[in-house]
From TrEMBL:
<feature type="compositionally biased region" description="Basic and acidic residues">
    <location>
        <begin position="72"/>
        <end position="92"/>
    </location>
</feature>
<feature type="compositionally biased region" description="Low complexity">
    <location>
        <begin position="199"/>
        <end position="222"/>
    </location>
</feature>
<feature type="compositionally biased region" description="Basic and acidic residues">
    <location>
        <begin position="225"/>
        <end position="244"/>
    </location>
</feature>
<feature type="compositionally biased region" description="Acidic residues">
    <location>
        <begin position="116"/>
        <end position="126"/>
    </location>
</feature>
<feature type="compositionally biased region" description="Basic and acidic residues">
    <location>
        <begin position="151"/>
        <end position="160"/>
    </location>
</feature>
<feature type="compositionally biased region" description="Low complexity">
    <location>
        <begin position="51"/>
        <end position="71"/>
    </location>
</feature>
<feature type="region of interest" description="Disordered">
    <location>
        <begin position="1"/>
        <end position="244"/>
    </location>
</feature>
<feature type="compositionally biased region" description="Basic and acidic residues">
    <location>
        <begin position="37"/>
        <end position="50"/>
    </location>
</feature>
<feature type="compositionally biased region" description="Acidic residues">
    <location>
        <begin position="141"/>
        <end position="150"/>
    </location>
</feature>
<feature type="compositionally biased region" description="Basic and acidic residues">
    <location>
        <begin position="103"/>
        <end position="115"/>
    </location>
</feature>
<protein>
    <submittedName>
        <fullName>Uncharacterized protein</fullName>
    </submittedName>
</protein>
<feature type="compositionally biased region" description="Acidic residues">
    <location>
        <begin position="20"/>
        <end position="36"/>
    </location>
</feature>
<feature type="compositionally biased region" description="Basic and acidic residues">
    <location>
        <begin position="127"/>
        <end position="140"/>
    </location>
</feature>
Length: 244
């Protein structure tokens, strides 16, 4: 019986020991979970810091680009060694020479445009002169027709003079022939005016094309200015990297 009692007393002890071991394992698991959470929190903090640093770098890059577009050099070049400043000055001189070359090319293109516009002005002057001549010819035709009408009126007043009518017959025939000739000339002038219409339209299209070309050249100038700025900055960076 004493051995049975001892076994019974050992049962609760074993149960308590098992519970203690499970509690210890649970405590270890909880500690592991806590450590995992801490590591996750630290990782998130590091990710946040990395994102923040990346954002700061992007912001600084944007600021440098903005300053480069406005000044052609980053503000960070201030305070560099004298050698760096000399390299930057050489880069500025290169950029200036490139800008001068671009300016000369633009001036030559503008001179060509001015020549084209002068040619258009001369064409318009010639058109105006042709129209003035057409108007003068029409006025002369109108005066000739008025003269014919007056002659016919005089012929009508002299109806009783048959001989005069007979003599005037050939004159009327001659005037009729002149009218037909002037009518043909009027049709020719009308055709000429119609042909000048497409020429004017063509010149208007050419002007529009030249305006588009000017816009394109302005865009190219802006692009070339940006490219010169980029090259100047790249040159400065390379020289600074070589100096370190």
């Amino acid at each position: 019986m004493s051995r049975g009692t001892l076994k019974m007393s050992r049962g609760p002890q074993r149960t308590r020991q098992g519970d203690t071991e499970e509690e210890q394992r649970d405590a270890g698991d909880e500690q592991g979970d806590t450590e995992d959470e801490q590591r996750a929190t630290e990782n998130e903090q590091r990710d946040t810091q990395r994102t923040s640093r990346g954002t700061q770098r992007t912001s600084r890059g944007t600021q440098r680009t903005s300053r480069g577009n406005n000044r052609g050099r980053a503000e960070g070049q201030r305070g560099r060694a004298e050698g760096h400043r000399e390299r930057d000055e050489r880069g500025t001189q290169r950029t200036s020479r490139g800008t001068q070359r671009t300016s000369r090319r633009d001036t030559e293109e503008e001179q060509r445009d001015a020549g084209d516009e002068q040619g258009d002005t001369e064409d318009e002057q010639r058109d105006t002169e042709n129209e003035q001549r057409d108007t003068e010819n029409e006025q002369r035709d109108t005066e000739d027709e008025q003269g014919d009408t007056e002659n016919e009126q005089r012929d009508t007043e002299r109806t009783s003079r048959g001989t005069l009518k007979m003599s005037r017959g050939p004159q009327r025939t001659s005037r009729g022939t002149q009218r037909k000739s002037r009518g043909t000339q009027g049709m020719s002038r009308g055709t000429l005016k119609m042909s000048r219409g497409p020429q004017r339209t063509s010149r208007g299209t050419q002007r529009t094309s030249r305006g588009t070309q000017r816009t394109s050249r302005g865009t190219q100038r802006t692009s070339r200015g940006r490219a010169e700025g980029h090259r100047g900055r790249a040159e400065g960076h390379r020289e600074r990297a070589g100096g370190h």
